Every structure is written in structure tokens, then in C-alpha cells.
């Protein structure tokens, strides 16, 4: 039974690959650098209250053999249209945000080219890998990526803890001014990931079944997801620790330019931890962002292609490769005009993700708890209570942000 469980690992690690990116390397590190350990409460509460809605993606797919998008259509075609529109608007900004950070790290690690060239090369490489290997290669690749990332991050955290000789406090803080509130919402928006990643999870779950020619049970799907989810939270805490121990009260301010930010990030780590850690930090950072870039480049086109088929049937046939090429072109256009303001792109993408989170949370809860999901696969009473609390949390914080913006 345990062998079957571990063989079913796949979509959960893809979730980790998509989640462990900007939210960890940029947002978690900034949280530690600006607030020390003061925002751990935000990280943990976001992880807790978002958990049910992410889990409902693979749960629904395993229980029904359908994606969440199929379920949204059952709830009403208008709901699917709204989801389709949100995905279309956000996918270019999200892809541009993760690509620009990846390109900045590539410039710092490898040199050779400028940001624009690296952005194009990374996009072409990602598309080529997906074209050649499709889901199967992505699934296999991500297991090694997450392993390398985890090892390098643990080495960096261990060195930081051993070299730290200053007292630190775990006193939790609550942001007060507009700038701090905006950062908090952005931090919550992608911690550990945007909620629409639950749609990606449901799609990847079915792709896994197609690739292996086996049907994943609900229990296996949830186990797989839990492994990936716990891993993302653990790594997020690691990056907060790194930011707190290495950068807190350092007096440094981060640039909004991707390549400069990458240089500052790596330089701060190596100055405080030792030059020998450069390679570990650089590889961990680049691996983090490349995994996010390739998974988002796969997931958004899958989502748009599936939604397009459900909405327009045979009238307008826009498949996976149409959307992946369109996404690549759109990303390049955005980067051409905004590549020097990485901070703005990250902020826009993360805030949009948080403000749309209540929409996806409510839909996922209704779908998994209603007539479209067999009773035996529906969540427990405790998980339903946690879901209601999560929906309240997301709505209240969204309203609070809009009132204070």
C-alpha cells in the first residue's frame, strides 16, 4: 500500500513546484528581512485557511474523474465565464512576474546575457521541455527539482543558524501603515500559492492518470497533495528564517529591478553566511524560480484550453499549444515594458490573487460539498468547518485591504 502511495506522487510535487517561487524566494525572504519572525503568524494562518480549497482540487478530480472547471460549469456557465476571464487577465502578469525573477537569477548565476535575452531563453527552454516530454517529463523533472531545492535550502538555513550569534525574538507583529498592509496582502495572496492553483491540481491529477494508465483513488490523491503542501509550508518557513537571520536590520533596501534584486539577494546571503555558500544559495534560488516558471507555463495553457472547450465546444478550437505560445508572446511583451519594475509586477500579481481568492474558495467548497461530489468523497465535518472559517478569513482580509488601500 505504501509503495502505491509513493508511486502516486506527482501532482502534489507540481503544486510545490508552482508554489515555491515568488511567494517563497521574494515574499517570504522580504517578510523575514522587514519583519524578522513577526509575520510567521500570517504564513501559518494563510496555510491553514487555504488548505481545504487547494485539497478540494485533487479530491474532486479523483472522486469524479473531472476537473474543477467541469464542476464550475455544472454550477452555472456564468461562473465558468468569470473563472475564464480571471485566468485570462492574470496569467500574463503571473507568468511575467515569475519569469523576470528567474531571469534575474540567471543573470546573477550564469552571466552571459542580459535580462531580456534570459527571459526569452528561459521561456523557449520551458516550452521546449513541455513540447518534448509533455506531462510525463514535467512530472519526473519536478521530483529532482524539489529535491535539489530542499537540500540547498536546508544547507543555507543550517549555516545561518550556526553562524547567528545575535538574540532574536518571535514577537508577532501586525502591519499598520498602507505600505505594510499592501505587503501583507501580497504576502497572503501567494502564500503558499494563488487559490486558482487548485484548478491546476485537478487538471494535473487527471493528466497523471492518463500518463500512468491508472486511476488514482481519493486517498492517494489527498496523500500526494499533502506531501507537496507540507513541503511548501516547510520551505516557506525556511526562507523566512533566512530573511530574518541574514537580512533583518541589515539596513539594505531591495531594488525593483530583477537582475539587481537577484544580485542583492545572493550578495547578502554570501556576505553573512560565507562565500562558500554562494553556489548553494544561487542554485536553490534559481531552481526555485525555474520550477515555478515551467509549471505555470504548463498549467495556465491547460486551464485556458480546458475552459475554452467547455465554453465554446467545437465553435472556437483553441488548444494547449495555442495558449502556451500566446502566453509566451504576452509575457515577452509585458517584460519588454516592465522588466525594470519587477516589484510592481509581483505586487500586482499577488494582490490580484488574494482579491480573487474568496471567489475560488466559495466555488470549491460548494462543489465538493454538494450534489456533484459523491457523499463518500465529501470532506469531513471538521474540514467543512475549517472551510467556512477560511472563506470568512479571505473575505474579511480582502474587505479590510480595500478599505485601507
Q: Could you give the order of the helices and strands?
A: HHHHHHHHHHHHHHH
Please indicate the percent range of residues in DSSP E strands (runs of 2 or more).
Answer: under 5%
Distance between the termini: 51 Å
Major sheet attributes: none
Low-confidence stretches: 1-6
The fold-level CATH name is Hydantoin permease
CATH architecture, by name, is: Orthogonal Bundle
CATH first level: which class? Mainly Alpha
**Estimated helix fraction:** over 70%
CATH superfamily: Hydantoin permease
Number of E strands: 0
Count of folded domains: 1
List the helices and strands and how they pair.
Elements: H1 2-7, H2 11-19, H3 22-35, H4 40-64, H5 68-75, H6 77-110, H7 115-163, H8 178-189, H9 197-212, H10 218-246, H11 258-273, H12 278-312, H13 320-338, H14 342-369, H15 381-404
Features:
405 residues; Hydantoin permease; mainly alpha; globular
Structure description:
The chain is 80% helix and 0% strand. The protein is mainly alpha-helical and 405 residues long. The protein has one domain: Orthogonal Bundle (Hydantoin permease). α6 crosses α11 and α12 (278-312) packs across α13 (320-338).
